[in-house]
Give the backbone structure.
Amino acid sequence: MEKKDRIWEIDFLRGIAFICMVYDHVMYDLNSIFGVRVHTIDLIGDFSAVLFMILCGISTTLSRNSLKRGMLVFGAAILLTVVTGAVDALFNTRLIIVFGILHLLGIAMILSYFIKKLPNVFIAIISVIIYILSIPFKQINDMGNYLFAFGIHDITFYSSDYYPLIPFLAFVFVGIIIGKLLYKDKTSLFPFSIGKNPLSFIGKHSLILYLIHQPIVLAITFLILKIMSVI
């Protein structure tokens, strides 16, 4: 899709998801890295992740190159694993992301290139099966960590951001169904546009902002805690 064809509500909702994710990461940094015990509203982080997944599914139905975009996102996810792994090894920050939401979305975009061509009823059935599989998969903890991408791991596995393919692919596939039903004309559902705004800007550039936000969040949080003499 060309820039003029962007559907404003998708960027806007993605911006909301990003802000909620930043809140979740700030709470994680305070509790796990800086040792400042604060109450966290876990529902906000969960809402952010699920919204990102559903919007990802919708977006793949609007894109002609979801395969290419998926490879780009997954490549960025691998880079993130390398960087957070290096930081973790040097400073023992427990920030390493082995299979986070970017890994999930990248693979989901690649798969969507093929999945979105199926009838909606088949996609719905696949989504239900994927979600149900997570129930027995959670009980498997004696096969090592080789299948961590599918939600199978033992107690030694750790990832500061972890969204395995099972069950979370189901939410992306639900997004595909929504996209095929509501956005088959590839136009906004609303007869108006809210114009340029910070949330839409964030949503439009969410990938690059995701990659750079954590160091910025850590630095700002550190400075604030220093000024307040908390650390």
